[in-house]
Design goal:
Layout lengths: L3 E6 L8 E8 L18 E5 L3 H9 L8 H7 L6 H19 L2 H10 L4 H28 L2 H19 L2 H4 L2 H14 L3 H10 L6 H17 L2 H10 L5 E3 L2 E3 L4 H19 L5 E3 L8 H10 L9 H35 L3 H20 L1 H7 L2 H17 L15 H31 L4 H29 L2 H30 L1
Antiparallel strand pairs: 1-2, 2-3, 3-6, 4-5
Length: about 500
């Protein structure tokens, strides 16, 4: 696949510090079927929207790091397309809301359809299966056909899938539930596309900040919005309303709610989101530090792959371990709250939502954390806190065994996992991966990165369901703790190489 280089303007350029990213296109990029304009051989190009030149000229006069994420977005410093960024955030939000809103509903729904913990694992994993089969393709399409067409197509699929999910209880089939979950996953498989868009419109030194903001939106989508699902379930419990062929009850209301949001986002994409054009700035010679980094990346390891490929693979495995851990809690969180704390699904969903809000605040603080800690340090710290929160549940006895576990223990554990550990650790992994990819085409690689996370959300929930069904749910927590500890060991050993490739 053709490479695409993101080059940050150096201090030797005529305009001073320029945070606008510049893209290097080889003669085969963009493809003939691309919506972007043609470029001549061996010319550099940069991503712009209609008024990007004015924004770039303004950014030349601002050479300082933004004080906060909000300030960065409002002033467009280091951000070539603020409107496009906000629309991308909307796409990410509704994509993960489809996972979050149904979080309190999924376990009761599976039980109503005659399923058990194993079926719950398959139902949760089906969503990620849809993502894993669609993410690489959507990433490739974003390069070949442009972001606009790719996102319109995926959002349309999501809208249809929401309407299908609303009929699950009426159809009364676990297999139909799996099918609709797969379709929802396909429609929301745009994480690679959206991250690539953000990578292209931000300067390298500020990329983790904007990736963190995008991740805060995503994280809020699947951790804060269970509150909406819990409220809808509570309000419509044992109630049923028919509006023609539309039946609204505690299992379908969330799906119709998401269908409305998907339709609104689709309308914004079709009317406000603009395809990006390409213009030619001056070609630049690579710096000595860049040459040293490229030399390190091209070295061949004992296993026959380059250091660069090994680093990307390592980041994908870190994505698997962090995403898989949170996927297991997504699967068993409600049933664990019922069996060990005697909590209702609505109450457990609200606890997760509150800690999800705390996690969003942590993500919005990534810019400040980045001033004091490196990506490597935030990965290790985040995964350590997450692992401690997980292992704190392993010693608890169930209510059936006569235990009377205090609710604050559930809240504290969820706080360490959802409020601190996962959001900081996983976001730092995303930022590290994007920096290692650097000047190469981000779309397809980000698609594969997202697929690795989706694979984890398939395997871990299914694994957790089987362990909980045939052994004990606390065994799941011990397994997850071991996986995160092993991941931290890998990061510690590989820290010098990862740091060199990401700077």
């Amino acid at each position: 696949m053709a490479s695409m280089e993101l080059i940050e303007q150096g201090s030797n350029s005529g305009g001073g510090g320029n945070d606008a990213p510049v893209v290097d296109a080889t003669p085969t990029f963009p493809p003939l079927s691309s919506t972007y304009s043609n470029v001549d051989d061996n010319h550099y190009v940069k991503m712009e929207d209609g008024d990007a030149n004015d924004q770039i000229e303004k950014s030349n006069s601002h050479n300082s790091q933004p004080l906060s994420i909000a300030n960065s977005v409002m002033t467009a410093e280091g951000l070539a397309d603020p409107i496009g960024f906000l629309i991308i955030c909307c796409v990410v939000l509704i994509g993960d809301m489809n996972r979050g809103v149904v979080f309190p509903i999924m376990w009761p729904l599976v039980q109503e359809l005659g399923g058990d913990a194993v079926w719950l694992g398959y139902a949760v994993g089906a969503f990620s299966f849809g993502r894993i089969i669609a993410s690489p393709t959507l990433g490739k399409w974003s390069i070949e056909f442009g972001y606009s067409k790719t996102l319109v197509g995926s959002t349309t699929t999501m809208l249809i899938a929401c309407l299908m999910f609303a009929q699950v209880y009426r159809v009364n089939s676990l297999y139909y539930l799996l099918f609709t979950q797969i379709m929802l996953g396909v429609g929301s498989a745009t994480l690679g596309v959206t991250r690539a868009f953000v990578a292209e419109i931000t300067a390298t030194r500020q990329r983790t900040i904007y990736i963190a903001l995008l991740t805060a939106v995503q994280y809020g989508g699947f951790t804060v919005t269970p509150l909406f699902g819990a409220l809808l379930m509570y309000a419509l419990q044992d109630n049923r309303y028919e509006l023609g062929f539309i039946v609204i009850d505690q299992y379908s209301a969330a799906a119709y709610f998401m269908a409305l949001l998907s339709a609104a986002t689709l309308a914004v994409l079709m009317t406000k989101f603009q395809n990006r054009n390409r213009t030619k700035p001056t070609k630049r010679k690579a710096s000595s530090r860049t040459s040293e980094r490229d030399e390190l990346a091209d070295r061949t390891m004992f296993c026959g792959i380059t250091v660069y490929d090994a680093a990307l693979l390592g980041c994908m495995l870190l994505n698997v371990s962090t995403k898989g851990s949170i996927g297991s809690f997504e699967t068993l969180g409600i049933s664990f709250a019922q069996s060990h704390f005697n909590l209702e699904p609505e109450t457990a969903g609200m606890i997760v939502s509150v800690n999800g809000m705390i996690g969003v605040i942590a993500l919005l603080s990534m810019g400040q954390l980045g001033k004091y800690f490196t990506d490597i340090q935030m990965i290790v710290g985040g995964m350590t806190v997450c692992a401690v929160g997980i292992i704190s549940f392993s010693a608890l006895q169930s209510v059936e065994d006569g235990a009377d576990n205090a609710t604050w223990k559930y809240f504290l554990g969820i706080f360490m996992i959802y409020g601190v550990g996962y959001p900081i650790g996983h976001t730092a992994v995303i930022g590290l991966f994007s920096k290692i990819v650097g000047r190469r085409a981000q779309g397809t690689l980000q698609g594969w990165f997202a697929s690795a996370g989706s694979l984890a959300r398939i395997l871990f929930p299914i694994m957790s369901g089987y362990i909980a069904q045939f052994d004990d749910i606390t065994t799941v927590f011990k397994v997850l703790f071991g996986i995160l500890a092993l991941s931290n060991f890998f990061v510690a050993v590989s820290s010098p190489t990862l740091t060199a490739l990401s700077t």
